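yo, HNH endonuclease is done. seq:
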Amino acid sequence: MGVKEAMAPMFMENPNEASSNPVVVAVEQAREILLAALGGVSFGLLGDEESLTLVLAVESVGRVVDGARVLSTSDVLRRSEYFDAAAAKAAAQAAVDQSAAAAQNAAREKAGSGKAGAESVIPEGAAADAASPSVARAAASLAAPTLARRLGCRSGVELVCALARLSRNEVRQRAVLGEKAGQRMLLGRPLAPTYPVLGEALQGGELGLEQARVIVQVLDGLRSSVLASDLDRVERSLVASGSGAITPETEDLPGAGIAFAPELLRQQGIQWKARLAPDGSAPGEAPTERRSWLTFGTLSNGGYSLNGWFTTLDRATLGNVCAGQLSDAYLFAAAANPVPGADGAATRASDRISPHLLSPCPQQPDDTRSRSEKQAGILRAVFEAAARHPGTPTMGGAAPTVLVHINITDLLDGRGAGWIDGIDGPLTPHQVDELICAGGYQPILFGHTGKILHLGASNRFFSASQRRALAARDGGCVIPGCTVPPHLTQVHHVVPWRQGGLTDIDNAVLICNAAHSSIDTSGWDIDMRDGRPWIRGPLIFDPTHTWRPAGQNRAATAVEKPTWEK
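structure:
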């Protein structure tokens, strides 16, 4: 016995009645035909044109099936939310028959009995009410179980999950879409869908589920802000754009006749909203002021979540900062990392490495951080630069300073953890050492008994004038090929502070965050000679391992005299 035959008696009182339905028979036949057609296909052996054609054909069938899955799932959920129509009809008829019989008995008893008997029978009005079909049907409806309850499930979602082997999340997503595109029922009578054009296109296989969800999201956002005629126009336009149809709503739009993917439909929806409801409010209402907001989550898995919402202008500003830094990373890696080609010619790194794998600094040539991880590093550098700016608001008369606490023994031994005021998460000793070296962080060192051994003084950190001098001398990160500008770099003590290194520009260089975090392990060496940094690269970059002067400001080199003056 197959799965279908085993499950049928569980969910159907009369399986033969359902299997004889022409729609069910046709769907079963279509399934067998599709299995026969695809059963022997070897996708890897198909040609390019055959593969593309097959994708289009399968997706066309899939859209039809997906539309039916959404609408059928929504129908089952609706039947499970309200009373079972079939059970209620049978119970109502039984209640009517029972009430009519009781009324007839009461009438006979009243006619054949005396006064004492008349006082003991049901009053005529009450008997008539009991025999009323409407009252009986209402009582039966309340007593009738829902479809899910009748089949032993607590809810329609549970019923569909068990029947169709789906997750609750998938069922809920279908339900949300089906409520807008599917047929509605009121007191047993069908009503038009909330978005009828969308429902027709979904059932006809003209739209995919993602496209339909985007359209519903756009229409729901406009529903309370525009007129019904405008909403209908937007619905028809988006459906036509999603299906590739040319209609009066799309004939003058760019790309008319081309089926739009979900992202393009979302962009088109944004344009419609900007035209019809730019303020997101109904006509006559005052537009709501939109403000960006940002919050920090609690400590989880060693880090903090960042939650927020940004206006279009704020998003563009932050996006441009990140895009500029990432663009520099790509251009540098493409230009500075050529590799030998098969024919002996140099092949650019950009031809073989994806942009998201590139680093703006040769300090970490194998940087495989994702784009989002790199953007987080860029954001940190921007805030560090802002904290150093003279115009940054002060806290109690002092510049914003991060207080880092660590035991001196743990710091010297490279173990334990450091702590920051107001932050639950710990820092590693390496991170503390890096922060102390960079400046802008005030170290507080504790001894064995908890006594404060050292509280960093303000002159421990590089002043604004020192940073300006370093920026003029180094011109940015001193690692050859790095393009990080001076205001996004950190100051590095060439001779570490714990070895007696002074906070002086003759003992400092500018390097980027990536270089600073790995300066002890990357193989780059830095030395100061006559107040100017010299760099020696690791063997992977410089097989000769030669000391070379670091980059300097363009103004440090004088223009050569004309030939006739030499």
